Amino acid sequence: MKTQKRLLKKVGQFFCLAVLAIGIQSCDTDIPLEDREPPKFSFQITGDGFNHIFNQDTDFDNIQLNLRKDATYTFTISGSDTGGLRSLRWTIKGNDQIVLQDPIISPWVFRNSILMDVIQWYGDPANPVSGSFLTGNMKVAGDLGANLFRFTLSDYGGESGRSNYFFADLKISIGNHTTEIISL
Question: What residues form DSSP beta bridges with 63?
């Protein structure tokens, strides 16, 4: 019975996040005269018995996310800003250990280099929207080690053009351990 309740709760959380993400993806907005609020951010990761949502209020400096080697995870990344989202970027450092299993489709852009993968969405100031989201699957592979997820978001900053930013680094440790968040 507890397992069914826990499963229903997780399905409910995922459904709510998906509805929110779809809503912000399609909302046209107007760039205000002045915008002093940074964009909002969400990164949900589910798999290996783990389900957590990180956001702009997470204490990224004092935590680490342990991922299990050879496990597969579902992710949803989203960003929003009532004055229009300018860009959302997810950088995966140590990309030989994190393999995205789904193609990154337009309007998202995928770039790969020797040291990192970059997944990015760019807004259009001529047709601003309040946000965007991306969902997919990733497999943890390769050797054991430390990685980093870097999240960077910006808005238009109002008609003054001074963008507000959100920036965070999530430390990742890959190994034969339980998927969990640990305090540093």
Answer: 183
Q: How far is CA 19 from the centre of its chain?
A: 16
Residues paired with residue 85 on neighbouring β-strands, in sequence order: 155
Predicted pLDDT at 21: 44
Q: How confident is the model at residue 95 (pLDDT cuts 50, 70, 90)?
A: low
| 13 residue type, one letter | Q
Statement: the pTM of the whole predicted model exceeds 0.90: no
Q: Could you give the angle at the alpha carbon of 108 between the alpha carbons of 35 and 131, nearest 5°?
A: 30
- pLDDT tens per residue, range 97-156: 898 999 999 999 999 988 899 999 999 988 889 999 999 999 998 667 778 999 999 999
Nearest Cα to Cα of residue 79 among 167, 180, 170: 167
What would the 3-class secondary structure string for 97-148 be?
A: CEEECCCCCCCEEEEECCCEEEEEEECCCCCCECEEEEEEEEEECCCCEEEE
Instruction: Quickly count: other Cβ atoms within 10 Å of residue 42's Cβ.
Output: 21
Exposed, middle or buried: residue 54 (CB in 10 Å: 0-12, 13-18, 19+)? buried
* H/E run at residue 165: strand 165-175
